[in-house]
Design goal:
The complex is a heterodimer of chains A (251) and B (277). Chain A has 251 residues and is an alpha/beta fold. Chain A has two domains: 107 residues, P-loop containing nucleotide triphosphate hydrolases (Rossmann fold); 82 residues, P-loop containing nucleotide triphosphate hydrolases (Rossmann fold, 3-Layer(aba) Sandwich), CATH 3.40.50. Chain A contains seven helices and eleven strands. Chain A has a six-stranded mixed beta sheet with strand order 5-6-7-3-8-9, sandwiched between helices. A three-stranded antiparallel beta sheet of chain A has the order 2-1-4, covered by helices on one side. In chain A, strands 10-11 form a two-stranded antiparallel ribbon. In chain A, a hairpin with a 1-residue loop joins strand 8 and strand 9. Chain A is globular and about 45 Å long. The relative contact order of chain A is 0.17. Chain B has a single domain, classed as Orthogonal Bundle (ABC transporter involved in vitamin B12 uptake, BtuC), CATH 1.10.3470.10. In chain B, helix 2 packs parallel to helix 8 and helix 4 packs parallel to helix 6. The longest helix of chain B has 30 residues. Classes of the chains: A alpha/beta (251), B mainly alpha (277). Chain A: Keywords: ATP-binding, Nucleotide-binding, Transport. Chain A: Belongs to the ABC transporter superfamily. Chain A: It comes from Chlorobium phaeovibrioides. Chain A: One of its GO terms (molecular function) is ATP binding. Chain A: This is ABC transporter ATP-binding protein.
Chain lengths: 251, 277
C-alpha cells in the first residue's frame, strides 16, 4: 500500500486579510486524478501554490510526499494557467521543455543525453515533436499550453499539478488536451484545477468543489444541487460524476 | 594613405588600450546586456550605475582609484534594490529612484569635501576610452573573466529566472538568490563600462546592442554573441569618429549605437508596412 501523495490537514490561508482557504482537509492518493472546481476567487490557484510550496499556509499543515511542500521538486510537475512572456524572447520549444529538466539537474552540470531524450519523449507525448525548433513566441495558444505540459512531463514527475490548462484555448484544442490527460491517467498522480465543470467529470476519478472550504465527491456519486448552489452565485445543475461506460471497468 | 594614417594611430599605446578596453567592455555588456534586455531590468541597471557615482566620490575623497570605490557602491546598489523589491515588497521603481539619487548625492558631497580640484571627473561621468590606464585594463579583464565564468556555470539557471521565475522556484532553484547574483553581475559590468562610456551612459550599451541582437537571434547564446559583436563595432566606430572629428568618445559611441538602433527599428517598421499591404 502506498501512502497518500498529498495530505492537507485543516489548512487555512489568509491573504491580505481575506480568508482564501479555510479548514481544508484533503488527501490525494497515488494514481488519483483529482479535479478541483469552484468559482473564481474560490482559492483553487492558492491551493496549488500551497502544494507547490510557493505559498505558506496560515494555519494547518500540508505534506507532499510526506515532507514539506516544495522540498521535492524532482517528483512534482507544474503547468501554470498562463505564461506571461515576451513574444520575442529568443527561446525554442525544445529549449522551453528542457527547462523541465532543471529540477533533475545538478548544479554546474550541463544537460546530458538523458535530458535530451526526456525532452523528445515529452514533446512526442503532447504531439509537438515537429515543433521542437519553433520559437516559443510563434506558438498558438493551444500549442503553448501543450508545450507547458511537455515542460512539466520532461521532469518525469510522479505528481502533476495543472492550473486551468484549458482556460485560454478553443474547444477543439480543449478536447485534445483532455485526451492527453486521459493518456497520462494512472501513470502519475494528477491534480487539475478547472472551470469546465461539465467536461472534467468525464475524465477525473475524484472531484473537489472548492470555495474557501472543500466538498469532496468520490467516483459514482453525484454533485448535489445544494452544495453546488452554495458555491456558485447562479443556479447550477447537478452532475453525475462518472466516466463513460466504455472506459469505466470498476463498479 | 589612410593605411599609413591608421597604422600610425594603432602604434600609439593609448589607441591599443582603447581598442582592448572596447573589446573587454563589449564582452561584458553583450552577455549581461542580453539578460538585462530579456528580463527588462534596464532601469535597475541605470539605478546601479548612477548609485556608483557615490563610489567615485569616495575614491576621490580617500585618494584611491575611483574604480575601486565603484565596486562596493554598485554591488550595494544591486543587492539593496534587489532585496528591497523581492523581500520587503517595496516597489522596484521607488527603490531604484532612492538609490539612484542617494548615490549621486553622496558622490557630490564627498567630491565637495575633497580638497582641491577633482581631475578626470568628467571622464567618469561620460567616459573617455582614450585615457584608460593599463592598470584599469587589468582590473577590467579580471572582472570580465569573473562575469564570463559565472554565466558559463549558471546560464541555464539565469535563463530560467529570466523566462519564468515562478517555474524556476518550483524546480527547486533559489530564484531570489540567483536574481541577486544576476544584479551583482550587472554591478560588475557597470565597473567594466565606466571607463568606456561613463556611469551616465552605461545603460545605453547594456541595452542597445542586446536589443538589436534580439531581432536576429533564436537563442540566448546567439543573442549574447551578436550583442558582443555589435557593441564592439559601435565602440570602434565611435572611437574612430571621435578621433577624426575630435569629439567626446563616450558620447560618440552612444550616438553610433543609438543611430543603429533607430535604423533597425525603422527598417522593421517599413518591412512590416510592406507585408501589411
Amino acid at each position: 500500500m502506498s501512502g497518500p501523495v498529498i495530505v492537507c490537514d485543516r489548512l487555512a490561508v489568509r491573504l491580505g486579510g481575506t480568508q482564501v482557504l479555510n479548514r481544508l482537509t484533503l488527501s490525494v492518493f497515488q494514481g488519483d486524478f483529482l479535479g478541483i472546481v469552484g468559482p473564481n476567487g474560490g482559492g483553487k490557484t492558492t491551493l496549488l501554490r500551497v502544494i507547490l510550496g510557493l505559498q505558506r499556509p496560515t494555519e494547518g499543515s500540508v505534506r507532499v510526499f510526506g515532507s514539506e511542500p516544495g522540498s521535492q521538486p524532482k517528483r512534482t510537475g507544474y503547468v501554470p494557467q498562463r505564461l506571461f512572456f515576451d513574444r520575442d524572447f529568443p527561446l525554442s520549444v525544445g529549449g522551453l521543455v528542457l527547462m523541465g529538466r532543471l529540477s533533475r539537474r545538478r548544479l554546474f552540470r550541463p544537460y546530458g543525453n538523458r535530458d535530451r531524450q526526456a525532452v523528445e519523449e515529452a514533446l512526442h507525448t503532447v504531439g509537438l515533436g515537429d515543433l521542437r525548433d519553433r520559437q516559443v513566441g510563434a506558438l498558438s495558444g493551444g500549442e503553448l499550453q501543450r508545450a507547458l505540459i511537455a515542460r512539466a512531463l520532461a521532469g518525469e514527475p510522479e505528481l502533476l499539478l495543472l492550473d486551468e490548462p484549458t482556460a485560454s484555448i478553443d474547444p477543439a484544442m480543449k478536447s485534445s488536451v483532455y485526451d492527453l490527460l486521459d493518456s497520462l491517467r494512472g501513470r502519475m498522480t494528477i491534480v487539475m484545477v478547472s472551470h469546465d465543470t461539465g467536461v472534467i467529470t468525464k475524465h477525473v476519478t475524484r472531484i473537489a468543489c472548492l470555495n474557501c472550504t472543500l466538498d469532496m465527491h468520490e467516483e459514482g456519486s453525484s454533485l448535489k444541487r445544494a452544495p453546488m448552489g452554495d458555491f456558485y452565485d447562479y443556479p447550477v445543475d447537478a452532475i453525475l460524476h462518472n466516466r463513460p461506460k466504455s472506459e469505466g471497468s470498476e463498479p | 594613405m589612410s593605411e599609413t594614417l591608421f597604422g600610425g594611430i594603432l602604434a600609439f599605446e593609448f589607441m591599443q588600450n582603447a581598442i582592448l578596453a572596447a573589446l573587454l567592455s563589449s564582452i561584458a555588456c553583450g552577455i549581461i546586456g542580453t539578460f538585462v534586455v530579456v528580463k527588462r531590468i534596464g532601469f535597475i541597471s541605470g539605478g546601479i550605475a548612477h548609485t556608483a557615482f557615490g563610489g567615485i566620490g569616495l575614491g576621490y575623497y580617500l585618494g584611491v582609484n575611483p574604480l575601486l570605490g565603484v565596486i562596493p557602491f554598485s554591488l550595494a546598489a544591486a543587492l539593496g534594490i534587489g532585496i528591497l523589491g523581492k523581500k520587503l515588497k517595496v516597489s522596484e521603481d521607488t527603490a531604484i529612484g532612492t538609490f539612484w539619487a542617494a548615490g549621486m548625492s553622496l558622490g557630490v558631497i564627498l567630491i565637495g569635501l575633497t580638497p582641491g580640484y577633482a581631475p578626470d571627473l568628467f571622464s567618469y561621468l561620460f567616459g573617455n576610452i582614450l585615457t584608460v590606464p593599463s592598470g584599469d585594463l587589468l582590473m577590467i579583464m579580471l572582472l570580465d573573466l569573473l562575469i564570463v565564468g559565472v554565466v558559463l556555470l549558471l546560464n541555464r539557471e539565469f535563463l530560467a529566472i529570466c523566462f519564468d521565475e515562478e517555474y524556476a522556484e518550483v524546480s527547486g532553484l533559489k530564484s531570489t538568490a540567483l536574481y541577486l547574483l544576476l544584479l551583482s553581475l550587472i554591478a560588475l559590468t557597470v565597473v567594466v563600462m565606466v571607463r568606456v562610456v561613463g556611469i551616465v551612459m552605461v545603460i545605453a550599451l547594456l541595452s542597445i546592442p542586446a536589443a538589436i541582437a534580439r531581432n536576429f537571434s533564436r537563442s540566448i547564446p546567439s543573442m549574447m554573441v551578436m550583442a558582443t559583436v555589435l557593441s564592439f563595432l559601435f565602440s570602434l566606430a565611435g572611437l574612430a569618429l571621435s578621433y577624426m572629428f575630435d569629439l567626446a568618445s563616450g558620447a560618440t559611441i552612444i550616438l553610433v549605437a543609438a543611430s543603429a538602433f533607430f535604423l533597425v527599428q525603422g527598417w522593421h517598421f517599413l518591412s512590416a508596412g510592406r507585408q501589411g499591404r
